[in-house]
Amino acid sequence: DAGVHSKAWYAATCDRKMAEDALYRSNKDGSFLIRKSSGQDAQQPYTLVVFYNRRVYNIPIRFIESTRQYALGREKSGEERFDSVAEIVENHQRTSLVLIDSQNNTKDSTKLRHIVRVS
């Protein structure tokens, strides 16, 4: 269990558009929620959705079968791995999360500051 179901930041029934709309409405840097990934892929079960600098980032959360851990984004050497999705959130409430804009090739960073609930 990823430790998501009882969490305020987990939007169980939320799709990508609903998540993005809710974050744009919040309009606060560091607003976030976690939703199920659109693809329903066991290797990428969830998506971390973060608002920063008037943009919404959808960051895949990967499940690593061999270690039964979770990691953010595409696989990279020396990546941080976590035992649950909740640990990813707790970690990035304390330490900044790097946001990569692949279209403009820019990097930003923010902490996860404001839980957004989808209504």
From TrEMBL:
Residues in domain SH2? Answer: 9-116
Q: Which GO terms describe its biological process?
A: cell surface receptor protein tyrosine kinase signaling pathway; intracellular signal transduction
Q: Which InterPro entries match?
A: Immunoreceptor_sig_adapters (IPR051751), SH2 (IPR000980), SH2_dom_sf (IPR036860)
Supply the Gene3D superfamilies for this chain. SH2 domain
User: Which cellular components does GO assign to this protein?
Assistant: cytoplasm
Which keywords describe this protein according to UniProt? SH2 domain
Q: Which domain of life does this protein belong to?
A: Eukaryota
Q: What is this protein called?
A: BLNK protein
